[in-house]
Design brief:
Blueprint: E1 9-15, H1 22-30, E2 37-43, H2 50-60, E3 65-69, H3 76-86, E4 91-94, E5 100-101, H4 105-116, E6 120-128, H5 134-138, E7 154-155, H6 158-168, E8 176-179, H7 196-205, E9 211-222, H8 234-242, H9 247-254, H10 260-285, H11 293-303, H12 307-316, H13 320-329
Parallel strand pairs: 1-2, 1-4, 2-3, 6-9
Antiparallel strand pairs: 4-8, 5-9, 6-8, 7-9
């Protein structure tokens, strides 16, 4: 395919064994496509009919779709890296192939990027379940925020960005559309590891000078059995336990004035992660008291505080019940 002009947006979709969901994902993009948007899809050696479905969809599509394929399965991080290396757009938007874009999302994004030219755009999402129950509605899953801070205006304070992301605790890369130039050649997803967004997002944010939070639901995030987050195995546990390594140290190196409040929200994110590690260890090994000493040591290394400092921050906020829960899981 000969490209005649540089696109303003690259939508990057990694594919692996998602034949049941792929068409919905692709249609959600194609139905709202506009000039200047390229769609690049990479099949990471699916063993189901995903690749065939992808080829058939591309042949019938009224807009061009670039299809890439790995020679062997390399995992989500490697798939995203390959997609990024092939992206030509001024902005890149990663979309998982079992998720979907909400109607009007691309047009709304274009309006923001044209008017403000931000390095980063943050959007909200909804949780997409096969069966939605009242408890899901009560949790607000139809509209989940990704940033705690000023809305619909150009922002420039990096410390507010750090705090706002960690306060909401939603680090998914697909809710953050970024300038391709931020990535350079030295920022990539860690190959061979899961929980990769927890590694990459804070490092991407560190490069951001201007950002814009649009509190609109742009992504439908599917919850399904068999996904990485819904499964439990030792590798996932180990990767999760090191995903926050070096984040605080890196940010403090650039911004030593990072507030205790911002540090606490980061620490609380690490707390929630450690609780997931502990629960997964108990479930996986069928052991109510597994050895968590290595994971506890990593946790405190990541937050840079000891028990007294962390517990004091809980108490200052009146989070006694949350502190009790943490101690119980700890």
């Amino acid at each position: 395919m000969i490209h005649t002009s540089k696109p303003w947006l690259s939508i990057l979709i990694p594919v692996y064994n998602v034949e049941a969901y792929l068409r919905e994902c692709l249609e959600s993009v194609v139905l709202q496509i506009m000039p200047g948007v390229e769609i690049i899809v990479l099949d990471d050696c699916s063993t189901d009919s995903s690749h065939q479905l992808l080829q058939e969809f591309a042949e019938d599509s009224i807009v061009p779709i670039t299809i890439l394929r790995h020679e062997y399965n390399r995992g989500l991080s490697a798939a995203r890296n390959t997609l990024l290396d092939n992206a030509r757009g001024d902005y890149v938007w990663f979309l998982d192939s079992d998720d979907a874009l909400h109607p009007g999302a691309i047009a709304e994004l274009q309006q923001i990027t044209r008017q403000y030219l931000p390095d980063l755009v943050l959007c909200d999402f909804r949780v997409w379940r096969e069966q939605q129950r009242w408890k899901h509605l009560w949790r607000g899953e139809n509209h989940t925020a990704t940033f705690a801070g000023a809305k619909q205006q150009l922002l420039t304070d990096p410390l507010t960005l750090f705090e706002g992301i960690y306060k909401e605790r939603n680090l998914h890369i697909w809710s953050k559309i970024s300038k391709r130039s931020l990535w350079g050649s030295d920022l990539r997803f860690p190959e061979g590891r899961v929980m990769e967004d927890m590694v990459v997002t804070p490092r991407l944010a560190l490069r951001v000078q201007t950002y814009f939070y649009q509190p609109s639901v742009w992504v439908a995030y599917r919850q399904r059995e068999g996904s990485i987050l819904s499964s439990s195995n030792q590798k996932k546990i180990d990767d999760m336990s090191i995903a926050c390594a070096g984040v605080l140290e890196l940010w403090l190196k650039h911004y030593p004035q990072l507030s205790r409040r911002a540090r606490f929200y980061f620490s609380y994110f690490c707390v929630k992660t450690h609780i997931c590690v502990a629960r997964d260890m108990r479930s996986l090994h069928k052991n109510p008291t597994p050895d968590l000493s290595v994971y506890r040591a990593r946790f405190f290394e990541h937050i840079g505080w000891g028990k007294r400092e962390l517990f004091t921050e809980y108490i200052k906020r009146g989070w006694l019940l949350r502190l009790k829960r943490f101690v119980q899981e700890y």
